[in-house]
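SEQUENCE WITH STRUCTURE:
===
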Amino acid sequence: MSVSGRFWRWRGVLRRGGGAGAINALLVVRLRVPSVFATVGVALALMWSLQLFVHGRSVVVPDDTFASWRLVTTVSVESEGQGGSDLPETQPAQTRPVVTETVGMPFSVTRKLLVAAIYALIMLVLVQGQLIRRRFGRLNQRRVLFAVLCASGILAAAGGSLWVLDHAAAPVPTRPIGDLRVVSAAILAGGAFFCGRGRAPLAAVWLLAGFLISSIWRLEVWTYTASGYSVQIIVLILMTLIVHAALAGAITGPRRAKADSIAWAVLTSGGMLVFAAAAAAGARPPVRGLLHICGAGVWAIGTAGVLLSRAVIASRSAAR
């Protein structure tokens, strides 16, 4: 195997992902940098350094780098020998020679199994979190945070290596976030309004559904782009954040403002659904435009209510 092939082996990829996660963890745990800023900063540093030292838009690996990863299956094929199709219909089938062949399955099968394995592992850790805490007692929170951020880097590297499986090349990043569907799926599944224990497993369960919804939204709502990003995904992220805020107010807000909070939650979520319903309008632009306007209008009314109610609650708290 060549030098570049050894570089892209799975173990090396995970080590580098863990190293990036460790740098991020040091910034957060030691220097008290907010996690969001530390993640973006590390991503920008990696992006700029790769563009300085790597020429071109991708790093190509040899075709046989992951040859041992290809799943194989054994199939039996009837040979055309000894007459083949010229055999009479009365000829017994067992006289046709059968040849056993080994066929390599597409790498997409390997990728799907790896994704399923990684997702199952994350779910297992989340579900068993309470058991681990009870068994080992109260853990040092800074050490736990450091381990979590290192694991996050390893998972990110594992996800990137799946792209190499399909394309035999690793793209050199030109921006910290290449696909906003991942961000929108995380926000859809984030469960900002879920309270109490168990919200992390609940959000993880909804992550796959969130990615599916954001993918459908991207394909069906409209096709405008800005700076390479899908405009409808940006709209989905903004709408979802407001819906989270409205639902959080309806669930955990003051009891005297409960009815108003529920109304704002219904308006914001309903407006987002009406906006998305434009995808079902087919090729009728007037209907699609009307649904866009109605959905955005209903959502805007609910958003104004959410912002106003939060301002009132903040002013009352300040007055006390």
